[in-house]
Amino acid sequence: MDMLQHMEWDSVDDDLGELMDEPPYLSESPQSQSTASSISEHEFSCHCCYDILVNPTTLTCGHNFCRHCLALWWESSHKNECPECREKWEGFPKINILLRDATDKLFSEVVQRRRAEIQANPKISRSLLAFQRYGDNLGRSRTNQHKGAGFFFSGVLSALTCVAVMVLVYHWSYGVVEQHDLLISKPVARWTPEEVVSWLEQLGPWAQLYREPFQQENVNGRLLLMLGDEELLKAPYSIENQAHRRAVLAELDRVKALGVKPPQNLWEYKAANAGKSLFLLYALKRSPRLTILYLYLFDYSETFLPFLHTCCPAIAHIDQEVESRFLETQVNPSWRQWAEFLVKYCLLPYQLIAEFAWDWLAVHYWTSRFIIVNAMLLSVLEGCALWRLWTRARIRTLPHKMWNHLWKMLSQGFAFALLWPFVPQFVCNCLFYWALYFSPIINIDLVVQQLMHPETQAL
């Protein structure tokens, strides 16, 4: 009996050896291969598009869909439901990494072809981006719900910030503004002799030499408007220095043209042009290139020329006097200045704003620093936006986005021009100081989100 069992096991071993010695292509018939292939394609197909899964996403019900199919379904239905069984999913669906790797290996050619088709479809790209943003917002909202005391103190901080803005507005509106030079709003013909001397001293340290003659002659606003080159050269003024005389006449021409003294700093400019200052503050942040173009077209001599000469100064000699440099800000820029300005205007518009604020660092110590920091943050955000367009092969949509941005800014500017006369001054001051001092804090949070938690690319 034992001998018979031993013989049977030997025959089985011989049969297994023969099977293992056969070539692998003889071990399975073509019919079985086609059956396995058809079963594989069916198992790895999406239940929406009935094609091979691309970035398969598994829902809580167990069904798998292409991520772009799920995004299109979510965007059209606005429901967190499975497209097949209508069961609601929990949380935010994630890509099934194991299933994705399997489909990439088994059907690499089909998956690559479908990826290229999806990337070339702008509608699908927009749906994927909206779906991912929904997931990011959902994750942040869930995080905020579990912050507890941290979330409470964040709300308290926001409330205190609003109170601080209102206090600052009240302080600057009724305290500091009263200390500004009233000559920016008072007509020249009504200037007193003391105000004329104050205007003269603001031209520079060199103007102190001619303070006494103006005081002795008791020069008021009407007499100041009658002064010319010959009167300043003769006694009692005796301004023999030609550069000094030209500087006084140039500023006097500006005063005659405006009817008042031109603003010399940010606060004076805001007091004289409340609506324009608020418009420029928000416009330079949202669209610096269009805003600078607006200044060039509609405010060339008063705002654009000083801005350009400050950001792109002309090459000055060492022995050049201060009053001569003052005159240069009133002449047309050289071609070197235009070339430097256009390069910065196209590539680094926020750098122009930072350089202009840096020039006023001695006058506006903290305000200039806030503007410089905000300009740096906005440059980073603009660079991140361009990088996303480049990496996602959507740079060709840039002209379309620029046109939409132009239309949006024009419509907002037109609406601002219509609504500005009806908005209370206190509200405008709140908006102004909020954008000036607290906007950098918001931009810091946006930069951290862009650098630490960039939007996940679905393709």
TrEMBL record:
Location(s) in or outside the cell: Endoplasmic reticulum membrane
Descriptive protein name: Bifunctional apoptosis regulator
Keywords: Apoptosis, Endoplasmic reticulum, Glycoprotein, Membrane, Metal-binding, Transferase, Transmembrane, Transmembrane helix, Ubl conjugation, Zinc, Zinc-finger
Catalytic activity: S-ubiquitinyl-[E2 ubiquitin-conjugating enzyme]-L-cysteine + [acceptor protein]-L-lysine = [E2 ubiquitin-conjugating enzyme]-L-cysteine + N(6)-ubiquitinyl-[acceptor protein]-L-lysine
Organism: Acanthochromis polyacanthus
Gene Ontology terms for molecular function: ubiquitin protein ligase activity; zinc ion binding
GO cellular component terms, A-Z: endoplasmic reticulum membrane; nucleus
Membrane topology: Multi-pass membrane protein
Gene3D superfamilies: Transcription Factor, Ets-1, Zinc/RING finger domain, C3HC4 (zinc finger)
Phylogenetic classification of the source organism: Eukaryota, Metazoa, Chordata, Craniata, Vertebrata
